[in-house]
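Weekly puzzle thread! Below is a chain. First person to post its structure in token form gets bragging rights.
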Amino acid sequence: MLTCCKRGARGAALLLCLSLGGCATAVFDEARSHYYAGDPVAGVAVLDKAAAEEGIPARDTLLLHLERGLMLYRAGLFAESAKAFLAASDFIEQHQKISVSGQAKTLLSNDWSTAYLGEYSEQLWTHSYAMMSFIRAGAPESAAVEARRALQALETHGESLDGALFSRALIALSFELAEQYNDAYVAYRQLHELLPDAASMAQATYRMAQRVGSESGESWREKVAPDLWTQYGLEGGEAILFISAGRGPRKHSGSIFYGSERLSFPSYELSSRASGSLRLSDGQGQPLAVQRVSTDMSSVAQRTLDARGKKVLAKALLRGRLKHELVNELRDDNAAAAEVLNLVFFLLEEADTRGWESLPARLTLVRVPLAPQQQILRVQLGEQSVELALDPDERDLPQLFSVHF
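Winning reply:
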């Protein structure tokens, strides 16, 4: 393998250096700046223009779908955002097996040269945002399909995703809205196994237990808080909120030195946490009892990155060893060329810091019973608040809202 790599080492390294310099970072940064300024449609326009002009490399296709999908979701274009997230899911599935040539390329340069497939957490959140998009677009059956794909991601990546409670609650909700009650009941029970507070979605679990005729239904009835039970007894319907807050984590490159070799690896740094307690009240300012489940996105993201940390380090060590041997072999023939190649390798040793940066710091699913004829639902996070207009005549189906802080 060394002989094969040696022949084209200098040319390959220089070509990779030039090609990696043309990455789409500036395009994504521009789109995100519009998004954070409160204009997601302008962000989508930037991405679409760059894609049409082939200004985004094929290796960044997943990021294009993810950033575009979330911006469309934030703009309330739910059918379009669902399409973007489905495209992202399909891309991940099609590229899970990295080609031999792609692996060889990363051994001479870094992971920037291959298609970005997302962290395990980002893959799960791809399905999560697809579920939310389908639910908001009025397609619960499609949301249930994504729920099954999300379950597969949870089973595949095990404990590193245990903290993704929002996604688990969303899976159960998707099955419930699609009237797949057996699956919904199982999903709610699995959620409660991971929750320190078993009452968080107890009322929803009790309702599903009744639907499927489970003998454990009464045990869930006992977990429902009295004030929550009273509010649902008013039969004024229910509101379901998907609440996002803050900015999620961003990756940065860290380095360690192994002898004379530089080894780089990615890690997360916090952008901004969602601060303040979440409170819901009616039009008169009276607090409402709610069911809620939240996910700290930064915590889950770091945990999934840590889960593949050994693989990242092992690959970096192998890459460093290969580069070291190539430089030493070249040094016997041309010392000056060897130093140039060594410098190129040093500069190319940079961790892959690509990531889905428009994600929030926290996602919360809230279910709140409504009083008959209630017209206002106020949501407050710290000093920020939003008033949602309710339809007092729409009580048969849940009233759905997406709230962003």
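Puzzle host: Confirmed. Bonus trivia for everyone else. The radius of gyration is 25 Å.
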